[in-house]
């Protein structure tokens, strides 16, 4: 596998290259933003199977590199950073990052995450999503990725649409955080990572902007996950399922 590594910290870059657990992989190091942009615009980016990009570079931002890459290529790309709030990680995933790994990290784990992203990229096929679903009185058009209510429209990101699609496959039933993270975010659930919670909160805010009553149809099942209540059932919170062994 040919890998592009964009990292300005010599120690971090050397650690990744020297500790990379797959001897046959080739890692090319680029240490600054401008050189990376030249690689992208020259179409050389397509020669790589995957990329690892540091968010904080001395002459630019890894998130901008990600956005530029996505205008030219669908190469699997992981962002790495020594800092980052759940909101900033969610922003990176919205922009097209395949994963977001916080420093310090295990090089073995980084390699596993990149390999998984590359494998998924090679095997994934366009998913057939249901055309529409209802969140109370708010309609969700998954084809257009939009929420609709009495002539008003709010756009959804791809991941927000995937979350709602996954919830709609199990109407009235609880979807675990692990299930939602795996099938909507394409990553294993980590309770320390609040990205899933951030996305659910975003969806709820958008629904609430259109119809405050309809937001109650997206329910939290404490300690387990979330459920989308069918409109015919009503959103009586007293009927929301509770975990068997609440902590």
> What does the main sheet amount to?
5 strands, parallel
Distance between the terminal alpha carbons, to the nearest Å? Answer: 45 Å
User: Residue-averaged pLDDT, rounded?
Assistant: 86
What is the CATH topology assignment of the largest domain? Rossmann fold
Order of strands in the sheet with the most strands? Answer: 2-1-3-6-7
Helix content: 25-40%
Rg result? 20 Å
The general outline is elongated
Q: Which second-level CATH architecture of the largest domain applies?
A: 3-Layer(aba) Sandwich
How many separate domains make up the residues?
Answer: 2
As a percent range, the share of strand residues is 15-25%
Structure annotation, total helices: 8
User: What is the CATH C level class of the largest domain, in words?
Assistant: Alpha Beta
Order of helices and strands: EHEHEEEHEHEHEEEEHEHHEE
Low-confidence stretches: 237-247
Number of strands: 14
- Helix/strand-derived category reads alpha/beta
CATH superfamily of the largest domain: Response regulator
Descriptive report:
- One of its GO terms (biological process) is regulation of DNA-templated transcription.
- Keywords: DNA-binding, Phosphoprotein, Plasmid, Transcription, Transcription regulation, Two-component regulatory system.
- This is Response regulator CheY-like domain-containing protein.
- It holds the Pfam family Response_reg.
- InterPro entries: CheY-like_superfamily, OmpR/PhoB-type_DNA-bd, Sig_transdc_resp-reg_receiver, WalR-like, WH-like_DNA-bd_sf.
- The protein is of the alpha/beta class and 247 residues long.
- The protein folds into two domains: 2-123, 3-Layer(aba) Sandwich (Rossmann fold), CATH 3.40.50.2300; 132-239, Arc Repressor Mutant, subunit A, CATH 1.10.10.10.
- It contains eight helices and 14 strands.
- It has helices at residues 10-19, 33-41, 62-70, 86-94, 107-123, 158-168, 177-184, 195-210; strands at residues 2-6, 26-30, 50-54, 56-57, 60-61, 77-81, 99-102, 132-135, 138-141, 146-149, 152-155, 174-176, 218-221, 225-228.
- The protein has a five-stranded parallel beta sheet with strand order 2-1-3-6-7, sandwiched between helices. A four-stranded antiparallel beta sheet has the order 8-9-10-11, with helices on one face.
- The radius of gyration is 20 Å and the shape is elongated.
- Residues 237-247 have low confidence and may be disordered.
């Amino acid at each position: 596998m040919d890998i592009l590594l964009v990292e300005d910290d010599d120690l971090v870059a050397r650690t990744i290259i020297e500790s990379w657990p797959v001897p046959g992989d080739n890692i090319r190091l680029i240490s600054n933003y401008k050189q990376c942009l030249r690689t992208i615009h020259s179409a050389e980016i397509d020669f790589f199977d995957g990329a690892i990009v540091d968010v904080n570079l001395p002459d630019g931002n890894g998130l901008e590199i990600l956005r530029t890459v996505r205008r030219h290529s669908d190469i699997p790309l992981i962002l790495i950073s020594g800092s980052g709030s759940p909101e900033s990680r969610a922003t990176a995933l919205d922009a097209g990052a395949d994963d977001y790994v916080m420093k310090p990290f295990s090089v073995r784990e980084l390699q596993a995450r990149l390999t998984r992203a590359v494998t998924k990229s090679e095997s994934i096929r366009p998913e057939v999503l249901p055309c529409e679903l209802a969140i109370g009185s708010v309609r969700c058009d998954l084809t257009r990725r939009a929420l609709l209510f009495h002539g008003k429209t709010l756009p959804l990101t791809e991941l927000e649409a995937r979350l709602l699609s996954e919830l709609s496959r199990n109407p009235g039933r609880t979807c675990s955080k692990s299930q939602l993270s795996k099938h909507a975010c394409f990553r294993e659930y980590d309770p320390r990572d609040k990205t899933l919670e951030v996305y659910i909160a975003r969806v709820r805010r958008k629904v609430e902007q259109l119809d405050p009553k309809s937001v109650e149809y997206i329910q939290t099942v404490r300690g387990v996950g979330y459920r989308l209540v069918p409109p015919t059932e009503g959103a009586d919170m007293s009927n929301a399922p509770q975990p068997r062994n609440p902590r």
